[in-house]
Amino acid sequence: MNQNASPEYADEWELFRSVSVLDNHKINLIDELRHLVFDDPLQGESVLWNYDRLEQAAVISNDSIGGGRYVEYGKSTYQLPSGHITPPAEIRKKVDGDMELGSTVYLLASENMLKSKVACAFLLTTEQATRGIDIEPIEYVFS
């Protein structure tokens, strides 16, 4: 298990890391998730945003996840040199909790989610993470 994982998520999750939301809803994409960035011919380095309808959570990925439970909400540019990404407004409105300046969000991923060809991670608000959300790793999608 990753040393940054929270004890309550230790058994299932390789990564559980908090990050602060910056101005204009920017979030620092931590080094462990840098491989989610892909080269888009029109936008340059980007990440893909998805919404998991079952878990009601935002998902960052490097390609289309597919499956009926995921809705794509487009790409956002990976901003250099800061390493920031910005969740789309539509995703910020759908999730339970704040993604506003000064709030904390959590990046959550299982080992399989991190190492799959289509790599991904959940982005949870403080409200989602602290209420003990019973979220399942995205694993079966890539089997």
Structure description:
The protein is mostly beta strands and 143 residues long. It has one domain: Chemotaxis protein chec. The chain is built from three helices and nine strands. The strands form two sheets. Strands 1, 3, 4, 5, 6, 8 and 9 form a seven-stranded antiparallel sheet that branches. Strand 4 and strand 5 form a beta hairpin. The two termini are 21 Å apart. The N terminus is likely disordered.
- CATH homologous superfamily caption: Transcriptional regulator MraZ domain
* Helix-strand string: EEEEEEEHEHEH
Outline the biggest β-sheet. Answer: 7 strands, antiparallel
Structural class: mainly beta
CATH class category label? Alpha Beta
Strand share of the residues? 25-35%
Describe the global form.
Answer: globular
Q: Flag low-confidence runs.
A: 1-10
Summarize the helices and strands and which ones pair or pack.
Elements: E1 15-20, E2 27-28, E3 38-40, E4 44-52, E5 57-61, E6 70-77, E7 84-85, H1 89-94, E8 104-109, H2 111-115, E9 120-125, H3 126-130
Antiparallel strand pairs: 1-8, 2-7, 3-4, 4-5, 4-6, 5-9, 8-9
Question: Keyphrases for this structure?
Answer:
143 residues, mainly beta, Chemotaxis protein chec, seven-stranded antiparallel β-sheet, two-stranded antiparallel sheet, 11% helix, 33% strand, disordered N terminus
Short description, anyone?
Helices cover 11% and strands 33% of the residues. The protein has helices at 89-94, 111-115, 126-130, and strands spanning 15-20, 27-28, 38-40, 44-52, 57-61, 70-77, 84-85, 104-109, 120-125. The strands form 2 sheets. Strands 1, 3, 4, 5, 6, 8 and 9 form a 7-stranded antiparallel beta sheet that branches. A two-stranded antiparallel sheet has the order 2-7.
